Amino acid sequence: MRARTTQSWPTDERLIAAERAAAAGPAWLAETRRQGLRIFRDAGVPHAKIEAWKYTGVNGLVGIGFDPHAPAPEVRIPPPPLAGLEDAYRVVFVNGRFAPLLSELDGLAEGVAVVPLTTAAADPPEAVRAHLGRVLDLDGMPFAALNAAFWTEGCLVTLDDGCTLSRPIHLVSIAAGGDAPTMFAPRTLVVFGRGARATIVESHLGTDGAPTFSNAVSEVVAAEGAVVEHYKQVQGCEADFHVGASAVSLGAGASYDGFALTLGGRLVRNETRVTLASPGAECRINGAYAAFGDSHVDNTTLIDHVAAGATSRETFMGVVGDSARGVFQGKTLVRAHAQKTDGHMLHKALLLSSGAEVDAKPELEIYADDVKCSHGATAGKLDETMLFYLLSRGIPRGQARRLLIEAFLAGALDEIRHANVREALRGALMKSIGDATRDLGCD
Amino acid sequence: MALLEIEGLRARVEGKEILKGVDLRVEAGAVHAVMGPNGSGKSTLAHVIAGRPGYEVTDGSITFDGRDLLSLGADERARAGVFLAFQYPVEIPGVTNTTFLRHALNAQRAERGEPTLDPIEFVRMLRDKMRSLGVTEELLKRPVNVGFSGGEKKRNEILQMAVLEPRLAVLDETDSGLDIDALKVVADGVNALRSPARGMLLITHYQRVLSYVVPDHVHVFAGGVIVASGDKDLARELEEKGYADFAAADAA
């Protein structure tokens, strides 16, 4: 039997040091850092009795004792770009630190700024002071609070009114495993001016080595009529932890097309909160995941309909094999003034083995009386009849399974509006499934 | 040795014995028709040959081209040259017909040590085969069998057979549910694939299809066994008298 430990994480010394560091920075920033610390101290590390963390335990994470000051191994070669996204602007971070030599920002269009967040914070433009830490409500978000307190570097993207960016911006965060477990807190702020249009792709990747913990926060603000495409790929190594929060605020008539593709990691939680505070906004948050081995993948979303006449669409699909676990918690909140809300949510899971598990909790909370909302969730096995049909044509079993899994997840991937990103992520998915040498997590 | 040799085959489905000692030899170059009433077990025979899960062979043997077919998995049987045209072709949303066919052909080519075809080469090869079967390009782009009419599904089965060029084709009630025009197209497709190197097993409830695909041998299936065998005239006799006499003979 293992003794229960009452170790605190992060250690008190670490928290005090963070507090001191916060005080040394600019006053406005110090306040957001202190607020983060306060909220984290009050809430503590989440446990199973907290509803939002009922299905996702973090004891494994806490037990590792991640250290933000563990030395990061050097990464000299940039990871290959996603096939089809070679033309994207690239901003690369290694263990949370900006890596200018791996980045590629040549020919950045007029009206767009991409700068390291520390540079921006030293002499903050209006966008930073107005929005950094203001989009995401830290209530019930202990890890995001920790990020607010601890982040050391990040990325600021601003788009002027009416600016259209034809090439995607690819933000690549590499979790480089070194000799000791290391943690870092990437921070991203993207501000869209009125009618601005751009595609932001986040890739959170891992390299072999000691475990890493990437505790990420992204905030996206879209002014009236902006068109936002915001896609995320999480593909860590077996020992990597990723807890990421994305908060999105949409102005009137703005649209948001979001997708989260999770292909690997010991524990991954993608938590997305979208606030539809103005009429006529459109929000689409979709995602797909493939979890094998001991992997734990959690997608938690909150779509908050505050204003009337907004629409939301949400489709998540997952494939879970071996003894992996998938968690989906989707909540659509329709406040009293949000009449004529149109909201649909769907989660579908494919279980490949008897040891695999999926917990789905779709929720509608509606206070308006003239709305059109629905939700659904299904979980099932690979269809034996389909499998036999493919086998009967000579397609080997492993390949037949991959075809059916790809076909299943295509139901979510097809929702991605940006064609090149859609194919790039599909390629990453197929390569990931194709790389699996084991019999794809099946019994 | 015949291409396919079935001896004393007994099989169960969900604990119930359906095949009760089937003996059948199909030579290369021959078309054998297996006729019988509903529930006689003739479709079970087709599925046991193809290796469908849930069909438990309790006795007897199936030898294909000198190999013990029952020791092979369904995909291995297909790559060895066995093809089953399904009575109810399966819909697979999300997989296009072209992708499906290319994966199938390339798996079989790889087994034979032949180079696999890239998508462009594959479509070029496919075009000729499609034209004669009246399969449109549009049908190839759609997900496998999804939204296909009954006739389109059956034509799609024959197209797969034409692409895969099996040594043994088992057609499970491919004629059922087709109007006369669709039946002719399917029958023409089957006839075009008759070859001295290929054996065919045509499983049907009706004599009608045998006017278009004239068999070399006809077997009557009843109560899980073959109760009579003959040439094409046996089919005509069946059409006149019905299955009742044969079923009674089996019961007696």
3D architecture notes:
The complex is a heterodimer of chains A (443) and B (252). By secondary structure, chain A is of the alpha/beta class. Chain A has one domain (14-435). Chain A has 9 helices and 20 strands. Chain A has helices at residues 12-24, 27-43, 59-64, 117-122, 126-131, 142-150, 384-391, 397-413, 419-435, and strands at 89-94, 97-98, 112-116, 154-159, 169-176, 182-184, 187-192, 197-207, 212-222, 227-235, 241-250, 255-264, 267-276, 282-291, 296-305, 311-320, 325-334, 342-351, 357-366, 372-380. In chain A, the strands form 2 sheets. Chain A has a 10-stranded mixed sheet with strand order 2-1-5-8-10-12-14-16-18-20, covered by helices on one side. In chain A, strands 3, 4, 6, 7, 9, 11, 13, 15, 17 and 19 form a 10-stranded mixed sheet that branches. In chain A, helix 1 (12-24) packs antiparallel against helix 2 (27-43) and helix 7 (384-391) crosses helix 8 (397-413). The longest helix of chain A is centred in the first third of the chain and has 17 residues, at 27-43. Mean pLDDT of chain A is 92; it is low at 1-6. With 252 residues, chain B is of the alpha/beta class. Chain B has a domain at 4-94 and 168-251: Rossmann fold (3-Layer(aba) Sandwich). Chain B has 9 helices and 12 strands. Chain B has helices at 42-50, 74-80, 97-111, 119-133, 137-141, 150-164, 180-192, 232-241, 244-251; strands spanning 4-13, 16-26, 31-35, 55-64, 67-68, 82-85, 92-96, 143-144, 168-172, 199-204, 217-222, 225-230. A 6-stranded mixed sheet of chain B has the order 6-9-10-3-11-12, sandwiched between helices. In chain B, strands 2-1-4-5 form a 4-stranded antiparallel sheet. In chain B, strand 11 (217-222) and strand 12 form a beta hairpin. The longest helix of chain B is centred in the middle third of the chain and has 15 residues, at 97-111. The mean pLDDT of chain B is 92. The interface between A and B is medium-sized, with 22 and 29 residues.
